[in-house]
Amino acid sequence: MQKKSTFLPVISLLLVVFTSSLRGDEIQLKNGELLTGRITYEADDIVKIEVAVSASIKETKIISRSDIAKIAKEAPDSVAFKKISEMLPVRSLTGASSYKSMIETGPNSFLRLYPDSVHADKVTEIKTQLDEELDKVERGFIKLEGDWLSPKEQAEFETLVKSRVQMLKMEAASRSGNYNGIISAMREFEVIEEKYYGTPAFPKAVELALVAVPALGRQLTGMLRDVEYRNAEYERNKAALDEVATAQVEAALQREEANYQAGIAADKKAGIKWVRLNPRSKPSIEGYLKLAGSELNRIKEYDVEQLKLQAEKLVQVDELIAKGNYELARTKLTEAAAITGRKASSKKSSSKGSSSYIAALNTKLNDRVAEETAKEKARAEAAESQALAENLSKAAKKKSSSSEADPENETESPEGEEAEGTVEKDPQDLFSALSDSGKNEKPKEKSPSKKKPTDDEEKERPRPVTVDEGGGFSLGLIIPIVTVLLLVTVLVLKFLGIGAKKDEDEDGETPVE
């Protein structure tokens, strides 16, 4: 996943902001000292000015009017410009509505009020950058630690992106420094550990937890030491109230306790380890101290450097899957999982439904391979169907061409056969057809009428001519010869009287000649 940083475009604007921050309101003292900062309060006798001790620490000084020789206030447009400059860089995961509000109350308002300011050009540059970032957000991009991720990247590297978001939540919660913020940060750590083990966010979360938990332990120790005194002080203050006020305080305390118990029950039902803390309850504080101690020892067992190495390799696996290099991705996944001994399995490891980056990648890889296999099967089936269709088309074309080239092979319709069966054919034509069988003949043209020919038409019909092909008798010549021979035989037998004997025997009389 490529990172798209906005660091370079912003750096010039930050330099301008830093240079501007060196200037401000100035108070020249009579002893020659010059105080530069921001005047926050003015009265007839005193002036308050906020000066920078360091980059992150500011101190408010109260100066008597009698000690001031001269006051030089910063121009209003310069003060406004400083506030606009502080808008950059925009924090991660800022929404479109926040961008619009920043642009309207910042650059747009400044350019309306101070169109001729010396800072107008820089403000226009800031506005341009904010407009560009707003356009990205409206198109579905998100900003994570200076990187812009497209909707496609968010979908492709879903687990990786979600783990970074969760890590940002943990960092934001821990910045408060108080026990509530640290507990909230550890609740976020619990989510990261269960769902995003193996991501680059996890070793970062471990390092932050190793700092946050001891800080929480120190606060809890102080709270445990003072809890009895604070409770006693509360009771003394309550006793000093009248009856109505006391009833109101007790009712408020009961509502608070009911809400706390409901929250505890909800946390336990959800399986949350870092439940809510009741700072007025000694047992609650003692229980939290035990939890903090045991969790700190458990978290210390993680090898952070090993986790970082594994996370780096798992990110490579994720990128290989995105490129479609599944075989190498599977090999790398097995190697990465072996670093910490976690199996590359998609099975959940606890009743709470915990998972990890390793399991997510294994599932993702299996799904992609199955999807590719299904596509290959579909392509093969489509190719087979297309080939079959082409073969059928070729066969149909071949049959059509053959029928056009050889009309004798065409079968007549039943109606034609039935009509032709009523026509009497001349026997001599049949003999002629037999004698010429096997020879190439032109097909006879069908008569327009199936009417039987008359005697005159029969006499005028030309007789078939027997062609001597040079060798033996043709079938058309043999039949007449055999017929003549049979007639001659009958006459001879008749003449010899062979047939008379037969007649006499049958009738019992001698025929009269």
Q: What attributes does this structure have?
A:
513 residues, alpha+beta, five-stranded antiparallel beta sheet, two-stranded antiparallel ribbon, 18 helices, 7 strands
How would you describe this structure to a colleague?
- This protein has 513 residues and is an alpha+beta fold.
- Among the domains are: 157-302, no CATH class; 303-397; 476-513, no CATH class.
- 63% of the residues lie in helices and 8% in strands.
- It has 18 helices and seven strands.
- The strands form two sheets. Strands 4-3-2-1-5 form a five-stranded antiparallel β-sheet, with no helix packed on it.
- Helix 7 packs antiparallel against helix 8 (201-239), helix 8 (201-239) crosses helix 11 (304-323) and helix 12 packs antiparallel against helix 13.
- It is elongated and about 180 Å long.
Topology:
Blueprint lengths: L6 H15 L3 E5 L4 E9 L3 E7 L5 E7 L3 E5 L3 H10 L10 H18 L6 H19 L3 E3 L2 E3 L1 H6 L1 H17 L4 H17 L5 H39 L3 H27 L12 H19 L3 H20 L2 H15 L16 H49 L8 H7 L6 H9 L19 H6 L14 H21 L2 H10 L6
Helix pairs in contact: 2-3, 3-4, 6-7, 6-8, 7-8, 8-10, 8-11, 11-12, 11-13, 12-13
Question: In brief, what are we looking at here?
Answer:
The chain has helices spanning 7-21, 76-85, 96-113, 120-138, 151-156, 158-174, 179-195, 201-239, 243-269, 282-300, 304-323, 326-340, 357-405, 414-420, 427-435, 455-460, 475-495, 498-507, and strands spanning 25-29, 34-42, 46-52, 58-64, 68-72, 142-144, 147-149. It is α+β, with helices and mostly antiparallel strands. A hairpin with a 3-residue loop joins strand 2 and strand 3 (46-52).
